[in-house]
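Our platform keeps sequence and structure together, in a single record for each protein. Nothing more is needed to write down the fold, since each code stands for a local backbone conformation. An entry from our holdings is shown next, in its original layout:
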Amino acid sequence: MWSITIKMMKKNMKMLIPAGIAILIGTAFIACTFLFGNTLNDSLRTQLTAQYAQANYIIQSTSKMSGSGSIPPTIGEVNTKQITSTDGVKSTYIQQSIPVNASTGDNSATLLAINASSDDRLLPVTMVKGHQPTGDKQIALPAKLADQLSVNIGDKVTLAANYGSGMRGSDSVELTVSGFTEDANGAFGAYGGAAVISMQTLANLEGADSESDLMFTGMTLDIDETKADTAVASIKKELPNGYSIETRQKAGDEALKALSQSGTNAVTVFLMCFGILAMLVAALVIANTFQVLVAQRRRTLALLRTIGAQKGQLYRSVIGEAGILGVIASVLGIAFGSAIMAIVVHSHALKSLGMTGGLVFTWQVFVIPLAFGVIMTVLASIGSARSATRVTPLEALRPIDISDNKRAGIVRGVIGFLLIILGAVLTVGAVMTLRSSMSSSNLSDDYPTMLLSAIAGCALIFIGLVVTAAFWMPLLMRLGGAFAALFGPAAKIAHANIQKNPRRVASTGVALLIGVTLVSCIGTGAACAKQTMNNTLDTHYSVDMIAKGSTLSQSVADKIGKIDGVTTTLYAPIARGSVIIDGEERSATLIGVPDTATLSKVLHANLSGVSLDEGKALAPTYSSFTGKVFSFKNDEVSFSASHDDGSDGASDANTLTYIVTQRDYRNVDPNVIVTLFVNESYFQTKQVQADGHIILAAVDTSKASAVDILTNAQTIIGTSAGASLSGPIAERVRWNQIVDTMLTLLVALLAVAVLIALIGVANTLSLSVIERTRESATLRAIGMTRGQLRWSLAVESLVISLVAGIVGEILGIAFGWVGSYMVFSTFGKVALVANWQLNIGVLVVAALAALLASVFPARRAVKTPPVEALAEA
């Protein structure tokens, strides 16, 4: 029986190719997913162990420290000299670091400084020019930072510790640049690299008398592998409680494991969901293929039954054929996926994402895609295998009729209808409950339950529609075909052909429906998210762009004012402090401005009738955090400005009382509850001491894009240590970038399922051409031209693709709106919009792909002469 199965596969090879391609794409995606995960892990391992440089052993604290060891010991309390002199230890490096601020004139930047090493091989960064510091008056800077500060080797930089007010070291030190460093493996990626200074300089910045007083954080060692066992045993005796020595490999494994437990493996799981979706869509293509194969072979199967073949043999024959197809296509898919990832890795395309890992093969890359491919192929063929067992010996004498006119099962219809009803109840109930909670301003703890109910409801509706597709999809196809029939005789024939196999057409349409619905849903959700957040930002921010910091200067404000798109800037002093509202102390910021006319140019608020004369202040009407109205007793506010007087932790307060005028403006300083505006004379006369300055800017995005404005502003304030940029333009750009990135990623992943579905459309047409060989020949014999026959197949393909695509768009928009309302209602009024550009683009792609899918079936249909086709049919 196996030999017969192989012969039948060879005979119908052309019919199996589209199904094989669908399996190949799905398994290739899964293989790529695991390879990408392996590359990501390899990159993370490299980054996590980059701080060890070329050390092969690490001394570090353990997670559990007992007794007095809960406080890390100082370097002087650890026998570092004994460890360094241990037989077999080539060199050691004590790991120390400190955040610092480097400045040269008007330029400054924050960075991380690490201590120098006697062995370049153990230094976590690489010297690319010059040399490490050879004394306490030298520093090696990151090359990129040196460009930003405009310094070269031999120039001077001023270094100061960049700690909070609770920790104090020396004020600053002047150092000479001795060289430039590069952080090739991203050991200090969060800081843009690291500078290198002597241990004594680092101790001075920490406020310690000597390096012995610094906390012992860890140590890296280069140990001779031939003496490693003895050396490690000796070193363990010298370590304080709570510290251990491990190999570099083990330390890296533990770090990666801890990171994976925090969610790194979620990337692989996330991508696998799309791989499984692709395989489910491929299963629909496979099922269609085997249904036609069994239908075509009914006479052959009946003859086999006549000569003694058992039902079980026929069943195993179909299942075996599917298994062979699954194995071959899956193996090719794994090879194809591996080749794609190899090209991506070796073309350095991942470096732009900060990934430096290589191509790493594990057993999952080969076993899981192969298992998925074979299992899904076999499962998809079970229905056809069962049909093969129902063939009787008498059918060998009957004419072949491979049209599938069976009606969908009533049980399936009832189950699908119940799923739709249940899903609608859950969805509507969740939306109405959330709406009621929002209207009463009382969002209860049941919000997660509402959200899950809405998700479950939409999922049940979609599953119900898929289950009942055999009922409603043919009706829509018939309507679409009826419209297409208006465009000529060839289109009428296409309309008639669509109705011949309603179940197969429904299955093909569902495959495309799944992909298009998900793409449209994600696109709609992204569009709603962007518009809702933009509206919310416009409401919650009254200044377009805000820069603040203790080191901001007038020259920085002037530079920002010259950016294309920035219309006006206001450079003003600020003071931190507090006010009393409704008997409670609230954090506040006082900003000094020349007058309301100047302020009105950058503040989006109605300032008519507002005066900022002496003794008067402008206050917000509403809280930007709660939306509640601020109430000031007797229309007065007392502002207590606190400032550091130079002693350890000490401060004095200066309280001033103002008559308040309130207007609706919000989030001028989003880090405090209340932002007050007063006349700048209070700062000029030193009645209020300035803690720093703020730059308020008005922006016109019609003159330049928000991204360009923000990028240019960030570049300018990057020279001011500790300065930050906020405001709606900054938040909008960041939010839109996140949404656009996620949208691009998800649509790209879902494109795999859409591609497989379009292959299914081509497969359906190919099968139809094979089935209608006699019919096509008859049409050709009575005068139908080749062009008309091609156009007939093109119309058939277009109707299937566009009907499924339009239904998918409608469902996707509806699900996207429901999801957006449930998720973004807590941020503000939800904007229910659609990403029409994406939706129309998907339909255009589906239409073009449908036309392309009809090319090869049409060539086959017109290639065979009518006489020969009639003779063979």
User: Anything to note?
Assistant: The radius of gyration is 36 Å. The CA atoms of residues 531 and 618 lie 31 Å apart. Residues 1-52+248-402 form one domain. Confidence is low (pLDDT under 50) at residues 64-69, 164-170, 644-652.
